[in-house]
Design goal:
single chain, 257 residues, alpha/beta, TIM Barrel, eight-stranded parallel barrel, binds 2-phosphoglycolic acid
Length: 257
């Protein structure tokens, strides 16, 4: 038996100012009920500028919506102009932090080594890293998807205490499916999610591996979420575009209805 509870994360990317963010979370909140929160954990990851406003909103209205961040620096403080540290996020009641998103790897030069440092900083601050991994179209066509994903997971988890691995969420996001409207086939995504779980097993133990949340991300929407959630090793979704629409994101959260 595992105690994997589905996790639905909205990655807003660089969208919405803090006033819009408040409206979006209010709308989402009105569309969800207690059964939804019992069945799935719900997290929104807005830009940094909205975190404080949403923290206050969530606390004041006792919302069961978690706060996520999209990035973090690995140092606790110091001369790193423009960066935000894990303890700063923790202080804002952030529970989840996305690390290694393919857009950060591609546009901001984040390597596996950097991603690994960020992941460890998030764990050290007692938050949950959401480690993103995934292959390019070229790599998929060359039959390299499994190797790429395995090596990204192994590299990021290198040096993490095997027991601490239980605090990590891993999102499989094939790069060619992100923001393209083109998803992986649920069977293929389920297969890679299983490989991710095996990789976790190799660096931890069977209990940790069977309890690790593995998410799928890449053009998830209200129409296709069910097909992904039906897969044994997929425990939730990292949702970009569709999470900007509270109606659609709520439908994704309550995919089982
Ligand atoms: P998408 O983005 O749902 O818009 O494809 C997913 C992601 O980048 O996390």
């Amino acid at each position: 038996m595992t105690d994997r509870k589905p996790l639905m994360v909205g990655n807003w990317k660089m969208n919405a100012n803090h006033l819009e963010a408040i409206q979006m979370v209010q709308k989402l909140f009105y569309r969800l009920d207690l059964e939804d929160y019992d069945r799935a954990d719900v997290v929104v990851a807005p830009p940094f500028t909205s975190l404080r406003s949403l923290q206050i909103l969530i606390e004041t209205d006792h919302m069961r919506i978690g706060l996520g961040a999209q990035n973090v620096h690995w140092q606790e403080s110091g001369a790193f102009t423009g960066e935000v540290s894990a303890p700063m996020l923790k202080k804002l009641d952030v529970g989840h932090v996305i690390v290694g998103h393919s857009e950060r790897r591609e546009h901001f030069g984040e390597t596996d080594a950097i991603v690994g440092k960020k992941l460890k900083a998030v764990l050290a601050a007692e938050m949950t890293p959401i480690l993103c991994v995934g292959e390019t179209l070229e790599q998929r066509e060359a039959g390299e998807a499994e190797t790429v994903v395995t090596s990204q997971v192994t590299a990021a988890l290198k040096g993490v205490d095997p027991l601490d691995v239980s605090g990590v969420v891993i999102a499989y996001e094939p790069i060619w499916a992100i923001g393209t409207g083109r998803t992986a086939l649920p069977d293929d995504a389920g297969l890679i999610a299983g490989i991710i779980r095996e990789t976790v097993l190799n660096v931890s133990n069977s209990e940790v591996a069977s309890n690790t949340n593995v998410l799928y991300g890449g053009s998830v929407n209200a129409g296709n979420i069910k097909d992904f959630m039906a897969k044994e090793h997929i425990d939730g979704a990292l949702v970009g575009g569709a999470s900007l629409d509270p109606d659609q994101f709520a439908t994704i959260v309550r995919y089982w209805r």
